[in-house]
């Protein structure tokens, strides 16, 4: 009886707990229903597309002359390192022989002690005089001996005739004596011997004269060599030159070939400019015809005026040079080196407070080339790395492929892909979405070009 009462009490407690939970759940559901009825419905959002503000410029076809830009150091065309050609002690040095001084043409730079060479010249002159006298003496003797040839020949003929007459009278007619015949024969033999001696002497004279003349020419050559050596004791400036180095002083002994003075001729400067071979092939101007014989080199390059600016101050230092020739083709770097020359008159032209163009200045050189026809000029940054540009078409962004004819400074020139009148976006964009909405503002072409030219200058 007691166990049953305990079970009934436990069941009542369980039912009570379940009822309490159900009541709490019902109250919560009712509260949620009431709260949901009290909440206002959310306002429906209206989606609007945001427009991207960009600047665009209208594409215009134009013919643009190409300008090839390179850099190089200005240097004199002619330089000379002068050395002594004879040995000796320096006895004179030009009073202004210092680096940077301008020495006029013909001025004596330095002089070697000439006394030994003057003595050698006097000896050579004496030898020439001696052999000249010998040649003249031999020629006079030869003429005298030739003059004796006729009388001796006549004497021989007379002696022979007398001998033959006496011998014939004695042998045929028994007239005269044997001693007379023998005396006549002796006279004939003496005349014949004298004539033969003279003939042998005359035969030797041309050889003797020739040998004397050879010795005379040798003496004259030695005299000329001595004169040249004496002249070489004095070293003069070969042109109006600027002294670039000096290594000679009074009292110094110089051996032949020892460098003493270096001069630079600043009357003509030259700048060696390296250009990419592809640019040179495509844009450099060459004349089709030439009067020169054909050679395997760049011989018909057109001598066009070039713009030269000092890189340290491009806006304040500018000169005009002339494209002169192609100097070299480097097979390793695939570059063509051209020479641009500047006259001294042009190099000396300066602006207020400016400097002249001098050797050693590092300059930029603009070389005019061929003309690009019907190209569109856009800022360089308007073209992506994969040669595409962004167009504004009906306020929507469109991506088109283009062909870049040339990039020149901060400008790119398009030869294909953009039509005249297209609006080319010049604002820098990073991964824009195709067909996105745009708010287009016209770019100030004139202001942009002025800014580019100022930056380039």
TrEMBL record:
Coiled-coil ranges per the record? 121-148, 181-236
Q: Name one GO cellular component term.
A: efflux pump complex
Any Pfam family from its record, for instance, is BSH_RND
UniProt entry keywords in alphabetical sequence:
Coiled coil, Membrane, Transmembrane, Transmembrane helix
GO MF terms, alphabetically ordered: efflux transmembrane transporter activity
Per UniProt, residues of the Multidrug resistance protein MdtA-like barrel-sandwich hybrid domain are: 79-260
TM helices/strands, residue ranges: 14-35
Identify its protein family: Belongs to the membrane fusion protein (MFP) (TC 8.A.1) family.
Q: What is this protein called?
A: RND family efflux transporter, MFP subunit
Q: State the species of origin.
A: Desulfacinum hydrothermale DSM 13146
